[in-house]
Amino acid sequence: MANYRKSPVLIGFLSLILCFSVSPAFCSDYDNIKVHPLLKTTITTDGRKLSYPKTDMPEVTVVIVEISAGGETGWHTHPVPVYAYVLAGELAVETDGGEKHSFKEGDAIVEVVNTVHNGRNAGKTPVRLVVFYTGVEGSPNTIRVQHR
């Protein structure tokens, strides 16, 4: 298992998150760090106000998701806030209500919460996403559903 306490990549990533979340002025004290904001919002992709779980057992999960060319996530929902960054490829997301959104390499995504949706690789190369779930320990972050 990797030693995350000494990982330069993790330390750098956490430093950038800290700089972005605190303020750009905080980062001005560091000559070797530049902050490039990707997204700042109060709403999800479908326009709903962000809401965090009320729990005494918070859990953050970070994963890399890969979807092969022509592949799909399958219809599902998230009961918790989910954020993603497109590392590569083109992702088409459709909600149960027919709303469609497209994301490409370099896009930041605030996923829909409690809304049935499906992600589809819209390109000819694999889609790669880094996904952050802000969930509750012992509860699922994704729930597969049957689509009508």
Describe this protein's structure.
13% of the residues lie in helices and 34% in strands. The longest helix has 15 residues, at 8-22. It has two helices and nine strands, in the order H-H-E-E-E-E-E-E-E-E-E. The chain folds into two domains: 1-37, no CATH class; 39-144, Jelly Rolls (Sandwich). A four-stranded antiparallel beta sheet has the order 1-8-3-6, with no helix packed on it. The protein has 148 residues and is mainly beta.
Detail the poorly predicted runs: 1-6
Number of H/I helices: 2
**Secondary structure tally: strands:** 9
Number of domains: 2
Q: Bin the helical content.
A: 10-25%
Fraction of residues in β-strands = 25-35%
> Can you list the strand order of the major beta sheet?
1-8-3-6
Structural class, by secondary structure, is: mainly beta
Summed up:
By secondary structure, this protein is mainly beta. The chain contains 2 helices and 9 strands; from the N terminus they run H-H-E-E-E-E-E-E-E-E-E.
Descriptive key words:
single chain, 148 residues, mainly beta, Jelly Rolls, four-stranded antiparallel β-sheet, disordered N terminus
Helix/strand layout:
Layout: H1 8-22, H2 24-27, E1 58-67, E2 76-77, E3 82-88, E4 90-95, E5 100-104, E6 108-110, E7 117-121, E8 127-136, E9 143-144
Antiparallel strand pairs: 1-8, 2-9, 3-6, 3-8, 4-5, 4-7
